[in-house]
């Protein structure tokens, strides 16, 4: 269904990742001559997180967002400071329950859209309590 388990706050003083970065891109089509050296380090905090004070990591359970490239067990980087817009993948709280869906704002109301045909879209009833908890900015998953 896309239920979220345990958001983890990212400590503003923590340096999560600093890894070596290759100076050349890796071809996904035909192979290119190998480069066996690295050109310094990249700070993944700076690369992945724009506002560390408003950013959380949440783990996804379920397969309702597979069409968006979000699978069971993936972790989403979620920014609570971003304004949710039509088309964004959001963490929503609908009547007290967390879910991850694509936000659709239509003439007839708000829809929380699943990205898997096995799951129906959620047309938010007028009397429901809906809070957009944050906007997903990145998806981390195993390959």
Task: Explain what the structure shows.
- This protein is mainly beta and 143 residues long.
- Helices cover 3% and strands 41% of the residues.
- The chain is built from one helix and ten strands; from the N terminus they run βββαβββββββ.
- Strands 1-4-5-10-6-7-8-9 form an eight-stranded antiparallel β-sheet, with no helix packed on it. Strands 2-3 form a two-stranded antiparallel ribbon.
- Strand 8 and strand 9 form a beta hairpin.
- The two termini are 22 Å apart.
- Mean pLDDT is 81; it is low at 1-6.
What's the short story on this structure?
By secondary structure, the chain is mainly beta. The protein has one helix at about 45-50, and strands spanning about 5-10, 20, 40-45, 55-60, 75-80, 90-95, 95-105, 110-115, 120-125, 130-140.
> What integer is the average pLDDT?
81
Q: So how many helices? A: 1
Helical content band: under 10%
Shape, principal axes of CA atoms:
globular
Strand content: 35-45%
Structural class by secondary-structure content: mainly beta
Element string (H = helix, E = strand): EEEHEEEEEEE
Radius of gyration: 18 Å
